[in-house]
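[Discussion] Sanity-checking designs against the backbone

I'm trying to build intuition for which residues belong where. Below is a structure token string of 499 positions. I'd appreciate it if someone posts a full sequence so I can compare it with mine line by line.
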């Protein structure tokens, strides 16, 4: 026991034990730190490898590009096939014939025409007649034929015509003022006069009825007139013009009734029979319009209308907008495809023969390049761009595909089928960054506002200059004639070889 206590109190032995434990703890900590560092490096390498593989897989496949930012999104061939709709409509091309006609929407057959608005030049047959639907409110006027009946003294019953001074001659009592009175008011006046004279025994029982109205005054005002350039008409006997242009038939009747009431004792019944002059104008606008090289069709009274790049339904909307100010009534255009030259696609950039080609048998992107006589030496097959029309409006879909992999390694999913109006563009090798491509080839030269084929005029040119002792230049210019307007010399790759 004493020896144990002595050993445990020995400071040298105690220090030795502590030193041994410290060395063991240090080596354990170093080992743990090394293992952690190795794991972190391995994880970082794995992550970097996965990112590299992901980036490589993206660059090897099909990418959907944001035309504004250049942001890339991987997309499959099946998703590409759905871009633009499952069954895209036929888009009008240069040379197509479009049958167009127009009609007033409120003048359809078997529909009421009460909402038709009177147009400049319309022929109107205006007829005024007396409103006899409520005799009690009718005011007797000069020329009216009046029946005066005596129920108890039928021999006194007479028929009188109101004279131009507004009076009639009543039996036994002489002249009585009749004009301006209703039949009931004239009856009361006659009863009072007979009561005063005492000719009749008892209370007189008298009836007053307007047998005939003076039709001449209404007939004299009724006329067939045409709506003047200021939209007004003038009827005989009226104190002022009546503006009817732009009013519906019902509103025009009310306006004429109001003006006639200023010169007639009784508001007349107004009827209007209209022969629209706009029908002649619309008939002149009917026919088959051919889509011109500038992509527009020319229609009388409307001028050039953009047609190339639109389907028939979209063209109807454009025709509706263009004809909106032609007249007061809404015009309903009718458009049909009368002659089709066939769907097409466009190839430009670093190809030997850029231009417009018929879309026969739905070629793929690679087949389109072969149709264009292949690529130039400066072509960048890894970044072939396809622009596809966006039916929802806005800028088109931009697709980038790696055709080098399709050729070298058989990545057939990169070689998708084209659709009508697709534009295939093969960039030059020095355009590496996608955002630079978008800026140089899309934003600055292709102001897509609605849909592909609307606002730009593609002139894909190829030029080759060979300089030796003299300059020999050859050039091929292919006007795409897609109906665009506003830009020239778009997508103009130039290769210069100096010997």
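Best answer:
Here's mine. Compare freely.
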């Amino acid at each position: 026991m004493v020896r144990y206590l002595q050993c445990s109190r020995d400071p040298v032995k105690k220090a030795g034990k502590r030193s041994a434990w410290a060395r063991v703890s240090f080596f354990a900590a170093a080992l743990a730190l090394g293992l952690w560092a190795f794991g972190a490096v391995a994880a970082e390498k794995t992550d970097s490898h996965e990112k590299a593989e992901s980036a490589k897989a993206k660059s090897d496949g099909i990418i959907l590009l944001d035309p504004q930012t250049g942001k890339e999104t991987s997309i499959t061939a099946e998703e590409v096939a759905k871009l633009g709709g499952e069954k895209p409509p036929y888009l009008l091309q240069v040379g197509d014939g479009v049958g167009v006609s127009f009609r007033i929407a409120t003048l359809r057959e078997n529909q009421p025409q009460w909402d038709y608005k009177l147009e400049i030049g319309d022929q109107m047959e205006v007829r005024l007649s007396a409103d006899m639907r409520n005799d009690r409110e009718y005011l007797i006027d000069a020329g009216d034929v009046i029946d005066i009946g005596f129920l108890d003294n039928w021999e006194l019953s007479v028929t009188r015509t109101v004279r131009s001074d507004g009076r009639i001659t009543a039996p036994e009592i002489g002249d009585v003022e009749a004009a301006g009175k209703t039949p009931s008011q004239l009856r009361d006046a006659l009863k009072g006069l007979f009561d005063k004279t005492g000719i009749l025994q008892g209370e007189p029982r008298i009836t007053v009825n307007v047998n005939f109205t003076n039709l001449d005054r209404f007939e004299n005002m009724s006329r067939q007139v045409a709506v003047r350039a200021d939209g007004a008409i003038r009827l005989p006997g009226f104190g002022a013009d009546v503006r009817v242009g732009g009013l519906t038939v019902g509103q025009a009747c009310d306006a004429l009734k109001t003006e006639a009431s200023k010169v007639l004792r009784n508001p007349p019944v107004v009827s209007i029979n209209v022969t629209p002059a706009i029908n002649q104008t619309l008939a002149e606008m009917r026919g088959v319009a051919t889509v011109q090289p500038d992509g527009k069709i020319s229609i009388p009274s409307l001028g050039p209308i953009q047609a190339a790049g639109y389907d028939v339904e979209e063209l109807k909307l454009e025709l509706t907008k263009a004809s909106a100010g032609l007249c007061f009534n809404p015009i309903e255009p009718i458009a049909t495809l009368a002659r089709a030259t066939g769907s097409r696609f466009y190839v430009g950039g670093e190809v030997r023969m850029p231009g417009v080609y018929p879309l026969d048998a739905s070629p793929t992107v690679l087949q389109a390049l072969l149709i264009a006589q292949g690529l130039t030496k400066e072509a960048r097959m890894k970044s072939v761009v396809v622009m596809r029309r966006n039916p929802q409006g806005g800028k088109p879909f931009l697709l980038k595909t790696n055709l080098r992999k399709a050729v070298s390694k058989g990545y057939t999913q990169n070689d998708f089928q084209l659709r009508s109006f697709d534009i295939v563009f093969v960039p030059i090798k020095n355009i590496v960054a996608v955002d630079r491509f978008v800026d140089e080839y899309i934003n600055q030269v292709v102001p897509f506002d609605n849909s592909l084929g609307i606002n730009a005029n593609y002139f894909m040119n190829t030029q080759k200059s060979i300089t030796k002792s003299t300059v020999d230049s050859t050039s091929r210019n292919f006007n795409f004639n897609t109906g665009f307007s506003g830009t020239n010399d778009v997508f103009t790759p130039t290769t210069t070889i100096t010997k």
